[in-house]
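Shipment paperwork, digital attachment
Item: protein structure file
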Amino acid sequence: METFRADPNPAKLDLGVGVYRDAFGLTPVLAAVKQAEQRLVDHESTKAYVGGHGDADFGKQVTRLVLGDDAALLQRAGMTQTPGGTGALRLAGDFIATCLPDRRIWLSDPTWPIHETLFAAAGLSVAHYPYVGADNRLDVPAMLATLNEVPIGDVVLLHACCHNPTGFDLAAEDWRQVLDIVRSRELLPLFDLAYQGFGDGLEQDAYAVRLFAQALPEVLVTSSCSKNFGLYRERTGGLLVIASNPDALTAVRSQLASLARNLWSTPPNHGAAVVATILADERLRACWQEELEGMRQRIVTLRHGLVSALEPYGLSEGFAHIAEQRGMFSYTGLTAEQVRRLRAEDAVYLLETGRANVAGLDAERLDALARSIARVVR
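Attachment content:
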């Protein structure tokens, strides 16, 4: 970020930082958020602590957003509000380390780098299962083969949708195969749901979580409102627990409240109050869903637009996966050397792994970017 800011090139392009940008290159405050905030300004009556589990209305509304309206499932599910999705992951890590000692956690290779450091900092032993191969393609057989060898009772972290950093998501049939293995080996699934609504839609992106929650006695889900509500700096998220029964849920939530007390005491409330206000109001919710769908469609259009822009250079087939991936990020397939050339020669910034933030693209500059990519890959 600092190198990009210091670059004097007026045509510089930031595809590294993981935030959504609109056609003007801005990360906007959603209209639904603005309206909810104004309502809070007018009617909020206290700034007292919200308690260890956070805003109860937020927890109830986001739990339904994630799990749907299955009454039996909702009776054994509860959310603890956290400072963003990262806070939810850390709370999950501390819970596993404290209450499920000696359980290793298995991450996809590759995964979001903070998964690696965060769980290690929580004291967990980290291992990996294959996800994307050297050919920059999703390798489901290798993933399944490794999961089938994971020790009984270990924890497996799964990206519910819009895999970060690759953009490659599992198909419905793949998820069913993963579920069979998780169930047979009595693994504890921990879903990272950071991009609900950015992949195929709000309901579709919750498919895997709901599949597992309905089939298994215990599931953990970390949910983030940073992307789909645009509340990046408000640090709004939660750890959702699905337990075997309501009594077990109460016991787990007691442990989570104790752990959270030593992490942040009680969570910040502004973002949570905004989300709860939007989801509880039919008009605001419809406005938000329209805005979210607009962001999702813009990303899809940019993906297809970049592949089309590469076609005159004979590269559309080699980069076709960009249009097939989901969410904000793409493992482009560019090498570290090619990425360094893009930065030095054209002020195009992305990670040296080849990961690009598609939501940072400018539709008016796709042809120029395609030209730059064509030059460095030849």
